[in-house]
Amino acid sequence: MTDEEAPGAGPRQPGGESGPAGGHRPDAPAPRTGPWTRRWRRVPPAGVDAALVLLAFVDAYVPPFDLTAGNILSTAAACGALVLRRRFPLVVFLASLPAALLLDVVVAPIAALFTLADRSRDRRVMAACAFLFAAVSAVPWPLSAYTPDEQTWALVDFVYLLASAAAPVLLGQLVQARRDLSRQLAETEQAREHERALHAQAAVARERAQLAREMHDVVSHQVSLIAVRSAALQVAAHEAEAREAAGTIRALSVDTLDELRHMVTLLRASGGSGSELTPQPRLADLRRLVETSGVEAELTGCLPPEIGTPAQRTVYRTVQEALTNARKHAPGARATVELWRAEGRFGVTVVNTPPTRPGLPLPGSQQGLLGLRERAELLDAELTTGPTPEGGFRVRLSIPERHG
């Protein structure tokens, strides 16, 4: 065997580089090998070939035989062809058969048969070669020099030689199977590493998307409320110092909303829709949300308290976003928040009237409704938004009953 035929090693291509059939890619994890395998790999292929050719010549020439031209040529061809056994295993094996027929040569055909079994995947060819080797080695040559009794014993020799030929074939197949298994384990480990990296990236993306939603739903809600209240204070205050302080608060709130819009946009660019991780708001918090929204709003209807937490949170965020948009874009408008349940679905409808005074120049990130649609998709729900015939705006969330 050569260094690349050792267990766990891949076939070597011309030029000494491992090919894709059995070598290891630079980015693939190297399979675990034992100390003997590592030492065997350090032996140069040329040294292994030279030792094998020398052993084949010793096997052929040490026993006394007739130095005829046929014997010398067949032996030299069988032994010398072993240098090419890795590139042309079948041809080298066939070249060793004349020496096996004329002389009791074993090393050359056995080595060629092992290499053929290690490199070939056609089991019919390997079985035929093993049968051919046993037949050639068992046939008495020349046939006229043997008595009928001796020729009968040739059949017994054929059986033993066939069993001997099965050994290198099975060993070559074992080395091939182990090499394939080593390559598959390396590819599996590489695939697992890639899968773990993708899973980590997906987890980060989900967390970023959730953080973007939370920043928009919670922080922007509170900051926009501060901006609205400070603007009202700036108009109603009688003292110049109070109006200046209220104007400063309003300007800082507007700048904060603008920065928050950029942060949410960046987070959404690197994130994606994901499942909820830490649900907090519930239906019981809706009344307080409506009362502190800064909009004259009325809460009607009710939903059962046993509705699932993700659905409760989606309803809460829908109401929060709808009231925030009404406060920012429809100053002075009134809103109606209706909780409903009918025909296998439940949800909420928020409708606000047209504005009664000019709106404040607050920045809009266009991320709120996008976040609501993402939440609705997680529950297979329907979110519809649009203006009303009276000039107001309507937001309606419809969730299937199975999520209740």
UniProtKB/TrEMBL annotation:
Gene Ontology annotations for the cellular component aspect, listed alphabetically: membrane
TM segment ranges: 90-113, 125-143, 155-175
Domain of life assignment: Bacteria
Single annotated GO MF: ATP binding
Domain Signal transduction histidine kinase subgroup 3 dimerisation and phosphoacceptor: 207-270
Residue span(s) of domain Histidine kinase/HSP90-like ATPase: 313-402
Classification via Gene3D superfamilies: 1.20.5.1930, Histidine kinase-like ATPase, C-terminal domain
Low complexity composition-biased segments: 30-39
EC number: 2.7.13.3
UniProt feature coiled coil, ranges: 171-198
Region: Disordered, residue numbers: 1-39
Keywords, comma-separated and alphabetical: ATP-binding, Coiled coil, Kinase, Membrane, Nucleotide-binding, Phosphoprotein, Transferase, Transmembrane, Transmembrane helix, Two-component regulatory system
Reactions catalysed: ATP + protein L-histidine = ADP + protein N-phospho-L-histidine
PANTHER family attached to this UniProt entry: NITRATE/NITRITE SENSOR PROTEIN NARX-RELATED, NITRATE_NITRITE SENSOR PROTEIN NARQ
Name this polypeptide is given: histidine kinase
Taxonomic source organism: Streptomyces cacaoi
